[in-house]
């Protein structure tokens, strides 16, 4: 796993030069991680759409998405698959609240955590990896890392350049030391190897030298990644698609709130509900 030890010296490349190099590095990373049959953890956002678009040129690709009724991903994933002309290769698992409640102890055991943030993010990936395994896939790629590298979270919008730089470094460190461990556990528990094209060492080294002014520009988050995706030929509606964070777009977070309430916990006590399940969980 690549790490950022200090603030890298920024390059002075033009936007066009940055796009050219970034395009080559993304294609190179995808080629290195391709497998004859590769599943994609697919949400319909620009990150997973770009991974699917590039991988489709290298190997057999199928898309796996997990969502709850009325969630953002329930409509975003099919729309994006259609734009990529991959509708027939999209596998959607419709999660019910009863299935989430039944599966919670199993998931908590796998990831070794009851943290609400971890659980709500891990759940869709865990189910997607399970479904991919059922379909005979041994490898799954996802767009993990793009938000931390290219400033994809909404909270970044209000930061000045120095604060944004610090937070990107901090969030990348958190992802590489904590979040990826959770995600690898979620996939490997289903005997599926998780591969992450955005977390390629040569790619991350270059991206960390891109000035933050190209990561959020004209109030557009992940600006330089979107422009690169555009230059690579990703359909326009996917290049500029807005996407919520995984825990919200899948609908899992809200479902956990409702499940906790059903079990006697108030809206703000979801974490206490998850903690109450810990006694029955054997951490692995």
UniProtKB/TrEMBL annotation:
Q: Which Pfam families match?
A: Asn_synthase (PF00733)
Tell me yes or no: is Metal-binding among this UniProt entry's keywords: no
Look up and give the organism this protein is from. Candidatus Argoarchaeum ethanivorans
**In its keyword annotation, does this UniProt entry include ATP-binding?**
yes
| The Asparagine synthetase domain, residue ranges | 24-161
Look at the named UniProt entry and state the broad enzyme category this protein falls under.
ligase
- Alphabetical UniProt keywords: ATP-binding, Ligase, Nucleotide-binding
Q: Name one GO molecular function term.
A: ATP binding
Question: Mind telling me what this protein is named?
Answer: Asparagine synthase (Glutamine-hydrolysing)
Q: Which GO terms describe its cellular component?
A: cytosol
GO BP: any one term: asparagine biosynthetic process
């Amino acid at each position: 796993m690549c790490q950022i030890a200090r603030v890298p010296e920024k390059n002075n490349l033009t936007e066009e030069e940055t796009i050219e190099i970034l395009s080559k590095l993304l294609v190179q990373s995808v080629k290195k991680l391709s497998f004859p049959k590769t599943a994609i953890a697919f949400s319909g956002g620009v990150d997973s759409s770009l991974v699917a678009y590039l991988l489709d040129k290298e190997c057999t690709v199928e898309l796996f998405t997990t969502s709850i009724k009325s969630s953002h991903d329930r409509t975003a994933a099919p729309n994006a698959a259609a734009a990529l002309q991959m509708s027939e290769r999209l596998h959607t698992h419709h999660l019910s609240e009863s299935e989430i409640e039944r599966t919670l102890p199993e998931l908590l055991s796998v990831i070794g955590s009851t943290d609400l943030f971890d659980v709500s993010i891990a759940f869709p990936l865990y189910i997607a990896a399970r479904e991919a395994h059922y379909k005979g896939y041994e490898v799954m790629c996802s767009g993990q890392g793009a938000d931390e590298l290219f400033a994809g979270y909404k909270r970044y919008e209000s930061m000045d350049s120095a604060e944004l730089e610090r937070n990107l470094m901090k969030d990348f460190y958190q992802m590489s030391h904590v979040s990826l461990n959770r995600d690898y556990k979620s996939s490997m528990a289903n005997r599926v190897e998780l591969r992450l094209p955005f977390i390629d060492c040569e790619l991350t080294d270059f991206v960390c030298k891109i000035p933050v002014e190209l990561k959020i520009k004209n109030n557009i988050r992940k600006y330089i990644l979107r422009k690169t995706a555009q230059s690579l030929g990703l359909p326009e509606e996917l290049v500029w698609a807005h996407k919520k964070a995984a825990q919200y777009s899948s609908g899992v977070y809200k479902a956990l709130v409702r499940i906790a309430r059903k079990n006697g916990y108030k809206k703000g006590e979801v974490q206490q509900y998850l903690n109450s399940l810990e006694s029955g969980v054997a951490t692995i």
